[in-house]
Amino acid sequence: MEDREYILWMSLLKTISVKNFYDLYKHFDSMATLYHCSQEELSRCNLLNFAQIQNIVSSKSDGSLEKYLEMLQQKKIKYLTINDNSYPFILKNIYLPPPVLYYYGKIEEVPFEHSIALVGSRNASYYGLKMSEKIAFELASLGITVVSGMARGVDSMAHVGALKGGGKTVAVLGNGIDIIYPKENSKLYKEIMENGLVLSEYPPEVQPMPYNFPRRNRIISGLSIGIVVVEATAKSGSLITAKYALEQGREVYALPGNVNNKNSTGTNLLIKDGAKLVTSCKDILDDVFPMFSSKKEELEPFDEMNLSKEEKEIIKYIKMGYWDADKLCQKLNLPINQIQTTLTTLEIKGRIAIYKGNYFIK
For this chain's UniProt record, which GO biological process terms are given (predicted)? Predict the structure, then answer.
């Protein structure tokens, strides 16, 4: 067997934790050495209990690794071990990095040296969803990798924004790589597979159990230079990701929100506790990627994406306070029926809303 197969074998033993794995690796220098130890030699290392020793010994002769490798091949699942050159260097430096990563996509094409994670509420507000998409779009447009967890809400919109921006996005799953969760993200999952990276430390067929996700969060922060918490309640799992980020020496950013919205309680608390306030992609660029700041001015603004020249003009003037059709008509010197048609189109596109006869940016 190759070195990576010995590592894969050890990672699959149910009685061996990640900490056990690294303690054993340090003691034996390699998993190949451990594999060829007798039961007596394993007992003498004083790192294993009886059940663990029995698990190791029985697994050598049951043919399970060969079957497992065959299953990975059938499902076209690729894997990396901690010793592989393609294993993200940024992740190797966290406490107890995953010994094995399963993935779909081209990991060697993902620039982890320029990566930001976006996380937040599954039940996000319209504001949270649009800001997640907007920030991710702008980061990806500049070549910055967007990392998230493919959960409902903020995570999904971060991936959507990154894909729209033509950049790379990484979905870190809290279940086996071959399980799509939530189910409604099937199309998104396939798009990320084709244009980014889907990865997990969990073996195939592992179900999305609640206790998997906090552990998964250390990988989201570990793959990133910094994390942005877009919306979060006071007890949100996103705050666990922020905690991991701090422990790993990553930057923590938070989007401020309405003090009366429970989904902003967590982000506002993070800001009070010292997280950096973010209102746009530029705040992140200026802080950790100054080399990208000048490039941002060359990009088409997210708010103007897929808009005609006339629609962009109307958006610009609504932002300046020209809220009704008559004022826009005077400012743009266009027929009222043409203005009204364009306003209706912008409403259908979800770019503006009308309230008591006035138009506002959504």
Answer: DNA-mediated transformation
